[in-house]
Write a structure and sequence with these properties.
With 167 residues, this protein is mainly α. It has helices spanning 2-6, 31-35, 47-73, 75-97, 101-119, 133-158.
Length: 167
């Protein structure tokens, strides 16, 4: 009786005592298997993929510049248009590359460009971002849109289904 409970006799093992001796290969389980082929780490880095990331980087800078100008030009509609352009870039990057890096590359370029434009204070008093609510909404809203698109990319990579949990 004690041999069966201890897991050391008769070739029987308990669930808790199986450890790594159950025939599982090291390095296959866990996060590496859950990431799947759609993750940025397991996707092959080809010349075409590098070119796509460079295009997304340039597009991130251009969308940040255009969004900066548009959000201040038209009062409520410009902010919505700038955020829609940001969301289109981020979601398009995920769709085009099918990796999480499709959001991270243009998102990092967008964020660095916006922060450089925010911190650019000239002695003449010229600036692109006024200290107004719309500027802060553009900055925070763009970050939120990037996080949402990165989460969608992560859900696709793990194969999570839509809908209620447990339903």
């Amino acid at each position: 009786m004690s041999a069966a409970k201890g897991g050391s006799g008769g070739g029987r093992r308990s669930r808790a005592g199986s450890g790594g001796a159950s025939g599982a290969r090291p390095g296959v389980g866990g996060a590496a298997a859950a990431a799947g082929p759609a993750s940025g780490l397991s996707a092959p880095l080809t010349l075409g993929r590098i070119g796509m990331y460079v295009l997304l980087l340039v597009a991130g800078v251009l969308v940040a510049l255009a969004g900066t100008l548009v959000q201040g030009a038209w009062s409520p509609g410009g902010l919505l248009l700038a955020l829609a352009g940001t969301g289109g870039l981020f979601y398009g990057g995920v769709t085009a590359t099918r990796t999480a890096a499709g959001v991270l590359v243009p998102g990092a370029a967008w964020l660095v460009t916006v922060f450089l434009l925010v911190s650019d204070a000239r002695p003449e008093g010229d600036f692109l971002f006024p200290a107004a609510l719309g500027s802060y909404l553009f900055l925070c809203g763009g970050i939120v849109v990037g996080v949402i698109c990165a989460t969608v990319a992560q859900m696709r990579a793990t194969g999570a289904t839509r809908g209620r949990v447990g339903g």
